[in-house]
Amino acid sequence: MNMEFKRKLAIPMEVKEMYPLTGKMSETVDARIAELKAIFSGASDKIALIIGPCSADNEDSVLDYISRLIPVQEKVREKILIVPRIYTNKPRTTGDGYKGLVHQPDPTAQPDLFKGIIATRELHMRAVKETGFACADEMLYPENHKYLDDLLGYVAVGARSVEDQQHRLTASAIECPVGMKNPTSGDLSVMMNAIQAAQHQHHFIYRGWEGHSYGNPFAHAILRGYVDQHGTPYPNYHFESVRRLAALYGETELQNPAVIIDCNHSNSGKDPFEQPRIAKEVLSFRKYDPAVKKLVKGFMIESYLVDGRQSVGGGVYGQSITDACLGWEKSERLILEIADML
Q1: What is the CATH classification number for the domain harbouring 150?
Q2: Is 323 a member of any domain?
Q3: What would the pLDDT profile of 296-310 be if each residue is shown by its tens digit?
Q4: Domain membership flag for residue 219
Q5: What does the pLDDT average to over 24-35?
Q6: Of 47, 168, 228, 230, which has the highest C-beta tally within 10 A?
């Protein structure tokens, strides 16, 4: 192979032994997963709000952000379950640019994957221990999931990964709810096939083992918009799109039909300030069709301490170095407004 093998990394079991969860932390994660499953099953009429930075680029500012969510969660706890985003892997369309905490625990330094693995586990552990939240992460690399599988409350499979067989099979073995995004082409059949695969049992090779998964009945859809052949973004959060998704679910025997509306990406044209309008629009039309209301289980919002984005090394505390985000004041106001509309 045309590559240099630098060093053998610690396997997940070894990392977990170095950084073990306490009994209290495991109880926190289990309780949050149970709350989220109740939303997706329809046992709870709350909505899920998966909210936080585009990428977790700085431990201090990410934990600062999540800590600010604690009093907000208390205010809206009867209507909303907040799931903070700690996205430690960042997909790059061309392969260039900051690839996330797991690659570069210091965005201004050279990649160090061992330090990155430790940094991602420590950050998720601190979030559970210090804030009481079990957080969300994107499964960009299925083989890395075991480093965090005892910590996560929610997992997302991205638009560029949703058609990949290993992502689908690994999702079928995950305990917490897994959201499958529509691909960048917008072809909903790809997403629906991914959900079906994730809900089924499978035998497959995982990290050198022959494994048997039991299926994830809480695998569900995420609508994030799409682009045409010219790269022009188009939304798919509108009433007609969600109603079409409800019809597609109706043609299947999938368990726990559900969709999370991603308010950024192609739905907003990557304009983070459009996210409040999109969420409110969905909440408005959700009231007029029982099938749509039953299907829409929540939202995904990209939000950080400071509006917008900066370049790596820009020096603005709590501002994204990847996609632009909604700042804290606007985000807090949006959460309270969503609660008022429910």
Answers
A1: 3.20.20.70
A2: yes
A3: 999 999 999 999 999
A4: yes
A5: 98
A6: 168
Q: How confident is the model at residue 95 (pLDDT cuts 50, 70, 90)?
A: low
Contact 58, 325 (CB under 8 A): no
Of 256, 245, 266, give the one whose Cα is nearest residue 198: 256
Nearest to 296 by CA among 304, 309, 284, 312: 284
H helix intervals, the chain: 12-18, 23-41, 59-76, 113-131, 165-171, 188-199, 239-250, 275-286, 290-295, 328-341
Find the Cα–Cα–Cα–Cα dihedral 61, 32, 326, 130, rounded to 10°.
-20
C-alpha–C-alpha distance, residues 228 and 226, integer Å: 7
The residue type at 17: E
Structure confidence by residue, pLDDT tens digits, 147-156: 999 999 999 9
Q: How would you class 231 by CB atoms within 10 Å of its CB: exposed for 0-12, middle for 13-18, buried for 19 or more?
A: exposed
Which strands make up the sheet holding 47-52, listed edge to edge? Answer: 80-84, 47-52, 296-302, 259-262, 219-223, 178-181, 154-157, 136-138
Contact 141, 117 (CB under 8 A): no
List the structure tokens of 199: 């809900």
Q: Which of 313, 310, 342 is nearest to 327 (CA)?
A: 310
261-282 exposure pattern, b = at least 16 Cβ within 10 A, e = fewer: bbbbbbbbeeebebbbebbebb
- The tokens of 221 are what? 């859809």
Closest to 269 measured CA to CA, from 229, 234, 306, 319: 234
Is there a contact between 328 and 303 (Cβ–Cβ < 8 Å)? yes
Cα–Cα distances in angstroms (integers) from residue 237 to residues 11, 87, 101, 224, 242, in the given order: 40, 23, 30, 8, 6
Residue 30 lies in a domain: yes
Q: Are 258 and 293 in contact (CB under 8 A)?
A: no
Q: Which domain holds residue 149?
A: 12-341
**4 domain-assigned:** no
- Are the beta carbons of 86 and 116 closer than 8 angstroms? no
- For the chain, the domain total comes to 1
